[in-house]
Amino acid sequence: MGNYMESYTGKINRKLQKKQRIISVAAGREPADLVLKNAAYVNVFSGELRTADIAVAEGLIVGLGSYQGTEEADMTGKIVCPGFLDAHIHLESALVSPKEFARAVLPHGTTTVITDPHEIANVMGADGIDYMLQATQGLPIDVRFMIPSCVPATPLDEAGANLDYRAIDSFFEHPRVQGLAEMMNYPGIVGGDGDTVAKIVASQTHHKKIDGHAPGLTGKELDAYIAAGVYSDHECADLEDALAKLRRGQFIMIREGTAAKNLEALLPLLSENYYDRCMFCTDDKHPSDLLEKGHIDFIIRKAISLGANPIRTIQVACHHAARYFLLNNRGAIAPGYLADFAVVNNLQDFEVETVYKKGKLVYGNGQVADFAEPEIEPYLQKRAADTFHVAHLTEADFADERLRGVLGLVPGQIVTTDNGYASKIEAEKDILKIAVIERHKNTHHIGIGYVQGYGLQKGAVATSVAHDSHNIIVVGENEADMAEAANRVAALHGGIVVVNGGVVTAEVQLEIAGLMSNAPLVAVNDALEQAKEAAFALGVSRKIDPFMTLSFLSLPVIPALRLTTRGVLDVIKQQYI
Amino acid sequence: MGNYMESYTGKINRKLQKKQRIISVAAGREPADLVLKNAAYVNVFSGELRTADIAVAEGLIVGLGSYQGTEEADMTGKIVCPGFLDAHIHLESALVSPKEFARAVLPHGTTTVITDPHEIANVMGADGIDYMLQATQGLPIDVRFMIPSCVPATPLDEAGANLDYRAIDSFFEHPRVQGLAEMMNYPGIVGGDGDTVAKIVASQTHHKKIDGHAPGLTGKELDAYIAAGVYSDHECADLEDALAKLRRGQFIMIREGTAAKNLEALLPLLSENYYDRCMFCTDDKHPSDLLEKGHIDFIIRKAISLGANPIRTIQVACHHAARYFLLNNRGAIAPGYLADFAVVNNLQDFEVETVYKKGKLVYGNGQVADFAEPEIEPYLQKRAADTFHVAHLTEADFADERLRGVLGLVPGQIVTTDNGYASKIEAEKDILKIAVIERHKNTHHIGIGYVQGYGLQKGAVATSVAHDSHNIIVVGENEADMAEAANRVAALHGGIVVVNGGVVTAEVQLEIAGLMSNAPLVAVNDALEQAKEAAFALGVSRKIDPFMTLSFLSLPVIPALRLTTRGVLDVIKQQYI
């Protein structure tokens, strides 16, 4: 149809024709497009395994009984599940483009993800959201959106954009937008801040969902946050927190991702009384984690191994998320539902062998089927490739002899300690210089501080993955290498760079908004592993992830000290020191 | 605001102000409008009774904890339930106006009903739907609509209107319309009939629900019906039928009304595995049944007495229907939900003592609080009061000496038997003349036949409640009284009339479209009981309801014989005899 403006009558007539064929196939008057023969399938409505031929026409399941099809696949001995949904993810965390993300998760039975393009929106504003919408159009997984609620994450941040309710309002009319993403600014909501609450009001006015993010919020503050219109939470780390929210009506997204792992603590939620209010999400999945463990299938496997009822776990992994997001035609195997299937070997090993999306085989025999890549308009391609607006940096930009705060790293955690002050690099005491360079608007704002616990003995490490504003973070044993590393990140239009003695020893290019690569996940992961080794070779402690650790040091909401483009911040006091 | 066209910004600002007050009350910064103190309440999310103060502001529940309010009500010793929902009802069956219906059901804790204005639409077409929308606007119960899918019920009927998908399409944009009402024409759907399927397609295009009506449909036909997009069924009379539909994804409305009573047969659906896919409905509630037994509270009471888990039963009675109809802010007691409460004495007797709607006391101390009556525009008032377009009838109109089929009545059932032919009245053999008089368009179509088993020994009985087209049905021992009774029905602009020897011995005026009275339910019921006695006095068998029995004799979808405006129909063969 292209841009031809369809009449309403024409639309109904076209849909009618398709519907009549569906009815005809279901009634047995003509052969199905596909029949999964003798399928033991998970019935999410009755909570049982049943056996039938599953007939598919026009991308939908049309019947469960005895059917013939122009294509037939024997499912004897297998278990057919509805395709899995990830209820909350930031696709950018996989460091690859959406099409490569799709290639990576299809083998794990994921057929729908709900993404919050929070990272790219902090870089490109509304253009970032549009970029992701276009980059996911027509993929063999269905990518639905929650619109970022907190860009910038805090007023202290210098992000690439500042999105108020008007800036995001028109996205609510997009057919793949389900609502407003995690409302992290819970103090703003509880305090009744107009600009913050207006985003919820606007989303509700469009009859859309609002996801929450309120770790540990309790009592009247939790009441206020939920009464404001926040319908879910994915930050529950213990059962008490989760039950307090569930009893107040929130849906609980049980999160098991790369950084945060809550499944074990929340396992009791998968019991009879609570599981219908729960779904699974990953929040963030880093390349190696996706490659080594999997996606939602990994969560199911782990839950079953921990003793959860397999059928209930699968209901949580598909149908409950679908219903929450009002995606009422998926997450189940029944007439009228999307023919999205994850076929597994058995309920114990739970290895995904074959995956169908809208009745098409998209994964089988270890191979993801080819698919047409989404077309992204030239304006947005250019915009995403050109997000670094930062002048060439020199050693002098990092020269500074004032006393600056020292951020103390804690292995395995993203909190820091307040390690006092320093005025110069002392590698022998593990005191390194760290800088955050504003890179969106060429303001030449450079915040300088010190970090202890990173271990670097020579050279510098820089990254443009720097939550949530994604400025350039660089840490170094000398200012010249810091300038070189930061310049190289900008020259690559984004990425991770390791420099020693003026020479780049490793790099990972992330040319999409400085966050993602167009390369396949395996290639990006290989480059990342090599870069890690290069960083370790320069002395970085093996107790920490050289890049992930850095990427959180500019997020001014996590205690004790952070570094922004303005200097070292005491997060608790919200004061620069 | 009236007709002032609000700007989007203005709308957001007004909602924001209200939302900020809700947050402020929830956070404890200002007093609530109402607090139910020490309330043992049903938590539908965790399936348990919990105790808290329930704080209300701006008509919504805002917090569960310890709260103060400008108004407080002590709930010690009571059980607070969310207000109940009737998932499927034809309001017209109560024979009273919507405002009187509201007065009748509020004492039973009903705060939301989903009505299908099928009867009035068969009389007044789209105007009938508009009439009911206006007659329910702002009532202290929330009346939501499903738009009639089958007007007329069959092509053989002569109704007051013929509604194709275009005729009903604009109603889907009304904020109180939830979808397309019971798709009774399941043969049309299974057969792929374009005009019928188009109604489903249009409703889906508006993202609305489609309710079903398919008693006993099985196998591939059921698959076809559900694949077409029918999401629920309220016609399940046995567990096997219900489970077949539930497993295929339909929601089951457990019906317990005046005519059809399915609760006992479907009680196993209230168990752990199935109850989350179920809700309650009454379909039709006649005046005496409403007055004597109650409404949804009666179903809950009966289910509990039959051994169902009380908490689960209450979940079915409120939250499940709300979720199905995407009324996502009701049917639960939690922050952000409507402050609709039914307060009962205990879970065994389950007597409703107090009812709140949006935080206002609407029933207490045995009294329904006064409320403003909805305004119905003059055009529609006049239209509803003037639905009889039928010439004055005389004895001669009913004179007929041809052989006509004899409809045999079966006490307690609405099916008839084929009792052969007759050519004249023989009261001593209980063979009476029956006529259906087209009354919408003054066509002077009068179908004539005979009926056996009614028992009338003299006079005539006529009614304008005549499913589904609501023409005038009259049965008589002589043609003169038949003419008199039918004329009187028309003169009353609708109702039920008993005549003997040219004299009206009893009548019930139903002046709204010939279906409903503006009088209170108690008054209508009294008149009805008197009319029944008058009919019994003329010899009508006490084994049957004199008017309900008649009202189904023109419905040409129930075997064996029916009478339409065209004559006696063999329903199975779909042939006039």
Structural summary, described in words:
The structure is a homodimer of 577-residue chains. The first copy, chain A, is α/β, with parallel strands linked by helices. Helix content of chain A is 29%, strand content 26%. The first copy, chain A, is built from 19 helices and 28 strands. In chain A, strands 1, 2, 3, 4, 5, 14, 15, 16 and 17 form a nine-stranded mixed β-sheet that branches. In chain A, strands 6-7-8-9-10-11-12-13 form an eight-stranded parallel β-sheet. Chain A has an eight-stranded mixed β-sheet with strand order 19-18-21-20-23-22-24-25. Chain A is globular and about 85 Å long. Chain A starts with 7 loop residues before the first helix and ends with a strand. The mean pLDDT of chain A is 97.
List keywords for this structure.
homodimer, alpha/beta, nine-stranded mixed β-sheet, globular
Tell me, briefly, the overall form of chain A: globular
Low-confidence stretches of chain A: none
Oligomer: homodimer
Which structural class matches the secondary elements of chain A?
Answer: alpha/beta
Task: Report the portion of residues of chain A in β strands.
Answer: 25-35%
Q: State the separation between the terminal residues of chain A, measured CA to CA.
A: 60 Å
Overall mean confidence score, pLDDT of chain A: 97
Total strands of chain A: 28
Using a beta-carbon cutoff below 8 angstroms, give the protein chain pair with the largest interface and the number of residues from each chain.
A-B, 63 and 63 residues
Helix share bin of chain A: 25-40%
Radius of gyration of chain A: 25 Å
Please summarize the sheet with the most strands of chain A. Answer: 9 strands, mixed
Number of helices of chain A: 19
